[in-house]
Amino acid sequence: MPRASDILSHGIPYEASNRAVPNKIDWRESGYVTGVKDQGNCGSCWAFSTTGTMEGQYMKNERTSISFSEQQLVDCSGPWGNNGCGGGLMENAYEYLKQFGLETESSYPYRAVEGQCRYNRQLGVAKVTGYYTLHSGNEAGLKSLVGSEGPAAVAVDVESDFMMYRSGIYQSQTCSPLGLNHAVLAVGYGTQDGTDYWIVKNSWGLSWGERGYIRMARNRGNMCGIASLASLPMVARFP
Q1: Residue 36's CATH number
Q2: DSSP 3-state assignment of 107?
Q3: pLDDT tens string 179-229
Q4: Residues 140/208, Cβ–Cβ less than 8 Å
Q5: Which of 52, 119, 204, 218 could form a disulfide with 208 if both were Cys (CB 3.0 to 4.6 A apart)?
Q6: What is the pLDDT of residue 19?
């Protein structure tokens, strides 16, 4: 994934509001987060990160939990700069979703391979009207975004110790704030025994980590770049 400074973003730079955000939050408890998914042998993490933050915002606005289609983004958002199973960016997906409605997982199911776009406008459910971006590496800003708005799409530098993670608060000595190579979803944050952490939803199935999740050390100098390429869309019903 490219550096944030290399991206020509059409998003709105997020500015933390003055209103206080909670010291801890877990959006799973409010129904903003769907079940853990599995991207399989396809480099589509960016699509899962996109649908994850879309699902949270749709729940926030419509009070309805819907699992959205990653496969539609894999198959259809290439002209907006994405590369299917070869990688992509959440912000490119938002640009696509400004023009096309996002279908549900059930109407456009995941296949873990890039195929021909089979988008059906009649089945579109949600669209993007704009999106916030946070490229500063400022974890306080990300806390404000997640704490006040909901689950946010983020990117991190994944090294072998991340892949081998089983449980506990992950603290890496090897990952970089710059080498972003994997997109995930920040669904909350908290503190345990004096150690601040992010609650992060991955797309590697339930058998990885803490039933598909990882708690990543927070306020450790933007560890693994979690606050270097964050975003959150404004979502409305389609059309």
Answers
A1: 3.90.70.10
A2: coil
A3: 999 999 999 999 999 999 999 999 999 999 999 999 999 999 999 999 999
A4: no
A5: 204
A6: 76
Assign residue 125 a region (left: φ > 0; alpha: ψ between -120 and 50; beta: otherwise).
alpha
Q: Could you confirm whether 219 is annotated as catalytic?
A: no
Structural domain count of the chain: 1
DSSP of 44-72: -HHHHHHHHHHHHHHHHHHS----B-HHH
Of residues 82, 135, 182, 224, which has the active-site annotation?
A: 182
Residues 124 and 29: their CA atoms lie apart, in Å, by 27
Catalytic residue check, 182: yes
What domain range includes position 223? 4-15+24-237
- Does the annotation mark 45 as catalytic? yes
Active-site entry in 45, 76, 175, 224:
45
Provide the mean pLDDT of the chain.
96
Annotated catalytic residue: which of 82, 92, 202, 222? 202
